[in-house]
Specification:
Layout (H helix, E strand, L loop, with lengths): L2 E8 L15 E3 L15 H10 L19 E6 L5 E6 L6 E7 L13 E4 L3 E5 L6 E5 L22 E5 L16 H4 L2 E7 L2 E8 L4 E7 L6 E9 L5 E11 L2 E12 L3 E6 L5 E6 L3 E6 L4 E6 L6 E4 L5 E5 L4 E6 L4 E6 L9 E3 L10 E6 L14 E8 L5 E6 L10 H10 L3 H9 L7 H16 L5 H15 L7 H24 L3 H11 L2 H13 L3 H26 L4 H8 L4 H10 L12 H9 L7 H15 L15 H12 L8 H7 L17
Parallel strand pairs: 1-2, 1-23
Antiparallel strand pairs: 1-27, 3-4, 4-5, 6-7, 7-8, 9-10, 10-11, 12-13, 13-14, 14-15, 16-17, 17-18, 18-19, 20-21, 21-22, 22-23, 22-24, 25-26, 26-27
Helix pairs in contact: 3-4, 3-5, 4-5, 4-6, 5-6, 5-7, 7-8, 8-9, 9-10
Length: 692
C-alpha cells in the first residue's frame, strides 16, 4: 500500500527514551561520554557514525557557527510564565542550530500562568484562566539619542484585527437588568489594534456553544465558527457558520447543519477553506465539502485530539492525546506511515508513545508553512510538523517524498503512488474529491494517469467500473462543471474516451460501448459499432447504431447549414475551398463557440441541440438552395473575385459544377452514365469543410 516515510527529532538530552538502534528514523541528542547499556543498544556506535555521516548532530556542541543558512525555519515557543523561546532549525535536517531565550515578558502579566498567547513582531496578546482579562503588549524600539524627536514607527492605515471568543451556555437565563446590552451578552468580540491603542470594533453572540472561531485566511472580513448543540434526546448537531463584518456589524451569511453521533473534540479547515474536518469522540472523522454540499464519514484508528491539514491541502494528520498519528488523504483514504528503518514496516499509525519511557500528552500539532510554488532546489523535499508535548520535550516530525519528484504530496503525486501500488479505487476517490473549476490541471493529470493505466490492463468488470467512474468525473460531475472548463479539457478527454470505446469493442462490450458513443456523440464511433456488431451477429444493435450514425450526421449538417446562413456568397466560396478563417472570425464575433458538431460537444450540449433542432423553419434550406441557384446562373467564366486566392479557374469551375449537380440533374443523366460504362449515377461527392 502507499505509505509516507518520516523521521522524528526529539530535542532533548535526557535519557528518557527507548529508541531501538535499528530505527534510524528517530533521533535524540546525547551527552559526550555518555554511558550506554550495550545490552539494550548493541549498535549505538554504528548508529552514531551513521548519524554523523549524514551531517546531523549526535552530541550538541557549545560553539556554533555564527553564520545562518538561507533556508532556515524558526519555531517559537511561549512558556506558561511568558518566556519566549526561538529555535533555529537546520534546513537539511531537523537539528537545532540556535536557541534564543527572551525573558523580557516574565512577570509582566497579572497572572503567573498564561493559557493562550498570540505573538507577532509588533505586539503580543495573552489571556489567563483564573482572570477574565486580555492583556495586550505593544513592542516599540527606543530611538537613538540624536533622533529622539523623530518618530520611527509609522502607523499603517491597515489595522490588525483580533478575534476573541469563549464558550457560553445559551440555556442560562440572563439576569434582568436595565443596563444589560448586547455587548455584555456577546461571546464573539473583534478588537482593532492600532499601535499601542486597542478598541472594540464589533461583537456578536452565537446561537450554540462555540467549538472554534477564526478569521478567514482568504477573505479577512469573514469569520468561520463551529458550534455544537445538544437536543432533548441527546442528539448532537454541529452548526458551521460564516459571519461577515459589514459596516461595523457582525452578520450571518451562511449556516450549515451537520448531525453527528459523537461530540466534537477538534476541527480543522483546509487551506482552500472549502472543506471542514471534525474529529469526534467516537473515533470518527467527519468532513463537509462546501463545493459538493456533501458530508463524508470514516473511522479513525485513534481517537483524534488534534487535526492538521498539510499546507498542500492533500494530506490530513489526526493525532491522539498519547501521540499516535494517523494519515489520510483529502478523500479520507487512510495512508500507511512508517519511520525510516533498516526493515521498513508500514503501519496504520505512528506509535510515538512507544518511544517514551513515561507517558506523554500531545497538546497540539502544527505545520511549518512553505511556498508550494517555490523553485528552490534541494536534494529532496522535506516537510516539517512541530509536536507540542505537555511537560515534555519539543519534537519535530519530517516527511520525505523522494528525490525524483518535486510534487510535494500533490494530488498528482498521490495518484501516481496509488497506481504504483495498484490502489485504483483510492485513486478514483481522490479524483472525485477534486474540483475541476479550481484544480483543472491536477484533475486532468490524475484522470489521464488512471485511464492510461487501466487501458493497458485486460478488461474485467472491476476495471470497467473504475474506467466509468473516472470518466464520469468529467462527463457526469456533481455539481456541474463550468463551460470554460468544459471547453478547455473537452478535446483531450474525448480522445481518452474514444480509446475506452475501442477497448470495449475489443472485448465485445457492445452495450457499454453504445452508451459511451452516445455520450461522445461521434458518427464514426457508431459506424465502428455497426460493423463490429454485424461481424458478431448482433443485427439489431447494428441497425440501431447505423440509424444513430445517420441521425448524428444529419444533426451535424443542420448545424453547419445554420452557421452558413450568415455568410455572403464570397465567404461561402472561400469556405468550400478549404479556408474557414473568416468563418472562425464570425464565430468569435457572434459568441457561437458551443454550436459545434456533436462529436465535439459535451453531452449536455448535445441534448440542447436535439431539443432545438426543430426550431428552424424549412425556408432556411429553400433560401440556401435558391442562393446557390442564383449563383449558378451567373457567368461561369467570371471568377475575378478569386484572384487573390491564387486558385485555378478550371478548378473553381469544376467545383461549382459539383455543387450544382444535385440541383440541375436531367432525366437522361442516369442513362448517359450507364452508356459511359459506369454502374452508378454520375455524381461527385462533395465534402463541406466546416468546423470539425
Amino acid at each position: 500500500m502507499a505509505s509516507c516515510l518520516c523521521e522524528l527529532y526529539i530535542w532533548s538530552l535526557k535519557s528518557l527514551y527507548a529508541i531501538p538502534d535499528q530505527m534510524v528514523g528517530c533521533h535524540v541528542y546525547h551527552e559526550k561520554g555518555e554511558q550506554v547499556n550495550t545490552y539494550e543498544n548493541p549498535y549505538n556506535e554504528e548508529k552514531q557514525h551513521f548519524t554523523e555521516g549524514q551531517d546531523m548532530t549526535w552530541s550538541p556542541r557549545n560553539k556554533r557557527p555564527e553564520r545562518l543558512r538561507d533556508s532556515i525555519k524558526e519555531v517559537e515557543l511561549v512558556l506558561s510564565n511568558g518566556c519566549i523561546i526561538s529555535l533555529a532549525v537546520s534546513g537539511h535536517s531537523g537539528d537545532v542550530d540556535r536557541i534564543f531565550i527572551d525573558k523580557s515578558m516574565v512577570g509582566k502579566f497579572s497572572s503567573d500562568v498564561v493559557c493562550d498567547v498570540f505573538l507577532t513582531d509588533q505586539y503580543m496578546v495573552a489571556c489567563q484562566t483564573d482572570i477574565p482579562r486580555v492583556e495586550y503588549a505593544h513592542f516599540t524600539r527606543r530611538p537613538p539619542l540624536n533622533e529622539a524627536a523623530k518618530r520611527l514607527d509609522k502607523l499603517s492605515t491597515w489595522e490588525p484585527k483580533l478575534l476573541l471568543w469563549w464558550s457560553t451556555n445559551s440555556a442560562d437565563p440572563w439576569p434582568w437588568s436595565p443596563m444589560t446590552n448586547d455587548l455584555e451578552r456577546a461571546n464573539l468580540i473583534v478588537l482593532s489594534l492600532n499601535g499601542p491603542f486597542i478598541e472594540v470594533l464589533t461583537h456578536g453572540r452565537t446561537e450554540s456553544d462555540p467549538v472554534h472561531a477564526a478569521f478567514s485566511g482568504i477573505q479577512p472580513h469573514k469569520i468561520y465558527t463551529v458550534e455544537q448543540s445538544f437536543g432533548p434526546r441527546g442528539e448532537i448537531t454541529v452548526r458551521t457558520c460564516v459571519l461577515e463584518i459589514i459596516r461595523g456589524k457582525m452578520q450571518t451569511a451562511a449556516v450549515v447543519t451537520i448531525p453527528l453521533k459523537g461530540t466534537v473534540i477538534c476541527q480543522a479547515r483546509n487551506p482552500g477553506e472549502d472543506k471542514l474536518l471534525l474529529g469526534c469522540s467516537d473515533g470518527s472523522l467527519v468532513m463537509y465539502s462546501q463545493h459538493k454540499k456533501l458530508t463524508f464519514v470514516t473511522r479513525c484508528a485513534v481517537v483524534p485530539a488534534c487535526l492538521a491539514w498539510h499546507p498542500g491541502a492533500n494530506l490530513i494528520f489526526a493525532a491522539s492525546n498519547r501521540g499516535d498519528i494517523q494519515v489520510f488523504d483529502q478523500a479520507l483514504n487512510p495512508l500507511r506511515v512508517q519511520f525510516v528503518a533498516e526493515d521498513p514496516e508500514p503501519e496504520k499509525f505512528l506509535k510515538i508513545s512507544c518511544l517514551f519511557r513515561t507517558s506523554v500528552t500531545l497538546k497540539n500539532i502544527e505545520w511549518c508553512m512553505f511556498d508550494a510554488q517555490s523553485s528552490e532546489f534541494v536534494t529532496d523535499y522535506i516537510d516539517a510538523m512541530f509536536l507540542s508535548l505537555e511537560k515534555g520535550p519539543p519534537a519535530l516530525l519530517l516527511l520525505h517524498l523522494g528525490t525524483m519528484s518535486r510534487e510535494r504530496f500533490s494530488a498528482v503525486e498521490l495518484t501516481k503512488e496509488y497506481i504504483k501500488h495498484r490502489q485504483i479505487d483510492e485513486a478514483v476517490s481522490l479524483l472525485e474529491s477534486l474540483n475541476w473549476d479550481t484544480e483543472g490541471a491536477s484533475c486532468y493529470s490524475c484522470l489521464s494517469a488512471i485511464v492510461n493505466h487501466l487501458l493497458r490492463q485486460p478488461l474485467n468488470a472491476e476495471r470497467e467500473a473504475q474506467l466509468q467512474a473516472t470518466l464520469a468525473t468529467f462527463y457526469a460531475p456533481k455539481p456541474p462543471i463550468s463551460e470554460v472548463t468544459i471547453v478547455e479539457y473537452r478535446d483531450p478527454i474525448s480522445r481518452l474516451a474514444r480509446r475506452f470505446f475501442h477497448h470495449l469493442l475489443r472485448y465485445a462490450r457492445f452495450d457499454k460501448a453504445f452508451l459511451l458513443a452516445v455520450d461522445i456523440g461521434a458518427r464514426d464511433l457508431f459506424m465502428d459499432l455497426h460493423y463490429m456488431a454485424q461481424d458478431k451477429g448482433e443485427t439489431a444493435l447494428a441497425e440501431v447504431a447505423k440509424h444513430k450514425a445517420e441521425q448524428v450526421d444529419a444533426e451535424t449538417q443542420d448545424v453547419l447549414d445554420i452557421l452558413d446562413e450568415g455568410l455572403s456568397a464570397e465567404d461561402r466560396f472561400v469556405q468550400h475551398n478549404g479556408s474557414h478563417k473568416q468563418l472562425q472570425e464570425a464565430a468569435e464575433q457572434e459568441n457561437i463557440i458551443d454550436q459545434l458538431p456533436l462529436s465535439r460537444q459535451h453531452p449536455w450540449q448535445q441534448e440542447y441541440y436535439r431539443q432545438g433542432a426543430g426550431d428552424y423553419p424549412e425556408q432556411t434550406r429553400i433560401q440556401r438552395n435558391r442562393e446557390i441557384g442564383n449563383l449558378a446562373a451567373a457567368p461561369t467564366d467570371d471568377f475575378s473575385c478569386f484572384d487573390d486566392l491564387g486558385l485555378d479557374n478550371n478548378l473553381i469551375s469544376d467545383y461549382t459544377a459539383a455543387l450544382m449537380e444535385p440541383h440541375k440533374q436531367k432525366p437522361g443523366g442516369e442513362d448517359n452514365d450507364k452508356e459511359n460504362g459506369r454502374g452508378t449515377p454520375g455524381k461527385v461527392k462533395v465534402i463541406h469543410f466546416g468546423i470539425v
